[in-house]
Sequence to fold (141 residues):
Amino acid sequence: MRASELSCKQQGSAGTLALALLLMKSQRGFMERNNRNSVDVEIFERQAMICKAFAHPTRLHLLDLLCNGERSLAEVQEVLGVAKANVSQHLAVLKAAGVVSTRRDGKQVYAALAIPEVKQACQLIHQVLRTQIRKQRRFAR
Fold:
């Protein structure tokens, strides 16, 4: 006979045990949901940080260059046509978001994607925008 089927008098310790098990199960479910929620919250926070880092044309251009492999900062500066200090500022934002890493070789500093999937993310965004532009141009005709 299950604890829930016992009369009030018979429940005694069985009822207490059943209640304790029910509370433990409920608490475990709450903790699992809470852990899932906290992981989701952390993911959304990190996603926002990365999206903020991507939210500048110069940084997107820099990422595009790095999608083709590691580059020296001198090369990046030349291609982007911006001041060295400006490259450093944009690079610092991307590094803080964890998407770019740097290494030093003597006096030369090199930058690379820290997360290879960033290349795929950038390509996907590019495809979405190309599709969006094509649709807008079709409707404008």
